[in-house]
Amino acid sequence: xxxxxxxxxxxxxxxxxxxxxxxxxxxxxxxxxxxxxxxxxxxxxxxxxxxxxxxxxxxxxxxxxxxxxxxxxxxxxxxxxxxxxxxxxxxxxxxxxxxxxxxxxxxxxxxxxxxxxxxxxxxxxxxxxxxxxxxxxxxxxx
Length: 142
What we know:
Layout: H1 2-11, E1 16-25, H2 26-36, H3 38-44, H4 47-55, H5 59-80, E2 93-97, E3 103-107, E4 119-128, E5 131-140
Helix pairs in contact: 2-5
């Protein structure tokens, strides 16, 4: 099966391999942070993301930051077709921004056959009042 996947990926550069989306209520994330504190944050965020979280001074901005990362990581897991917990954890996925604010995603290697060959991630995240949303496209690349 892995040989078939490798062949398909080598033949279809720039082919969409997966799409994922997620939406989360920011108040639910806020409740989890209040109830579970660092235990929740350390399960969800990588060290770089956690460091950035602690730099945010305004609580509403901080909760939107966490909610957007939660939604983005869930969307990545859906694009991979694995979900969180089947060899993929929140810690395998990191969301950052480039100098202009464009969201970026990186995924540590794990047991997904889609990550054997080079891939390109496209991520869009947004928040509005009570919701954070993410949309991800996973593309085969050279």
